[in-house]
Amino acid sequence: MLPDEPGSGASADGEGAAQHHRALERLYHSAPINALFSSKLTIPAEGLSQIRFDVTEEGYHAAGAAHGTIYFKMLDDAAFYAANTLATDRFLLTTSFNLHFTKPVRTGEVVAEGRWVSGKRRVFVAEARLVDSEGDEIGRGTGTFMRSRIALSSLEGYKP
Hints:
By secondary structure, the chain is of the alpha+beta class. The protein is built from two helices and six strands. Helices cover 21% and strands 37% of the residues.
C-alpha cells in the first residue's frame, strides 16, 4: 500500500516513508495558522521532527518575553508531526499536552525538536523540547495524540 492509502496505518518504508515525510512538511506549511509564524518544519526520519522558528516582539507578553502560546504551539506541532510520521493514513489529533517552561526567551531562532515515544495504532505519545539560540532548553512537553477519522489523503496540503 502507498503511505496515504486508507488502512495503511503502519509506518512506511524507504521511498514511501520519504514521500510521507515530505507530504507532512507540506501539510504543516499549508495550515493558515503558520502564516503567523516564521517557521520551517523538517522531518529527518520516522519518529522525529524539527521546527525552526523566529521569536519576535510581536509574540511578547506584557513583561517583554515570548508568550506561552508560542511555546505550546511549537512544542505541540513538533510532537504531533513526530507522531504522525508513524500514522500514514490518518490525521492525528492532540488529546492532551503537558508542558514545562524552563527559561524565558526574547528574540532569535528557537528550535523545537519532536520525538515519538510510544504507540503505533490508535494512541501515540510524543515529546518535544525547545532550544534557544544559546543552546539552552527553554521548554519541554509531552503529548498524547489519537487517530481521527480524517484521511491524510483528503487534505489539500498533504497532496503533492
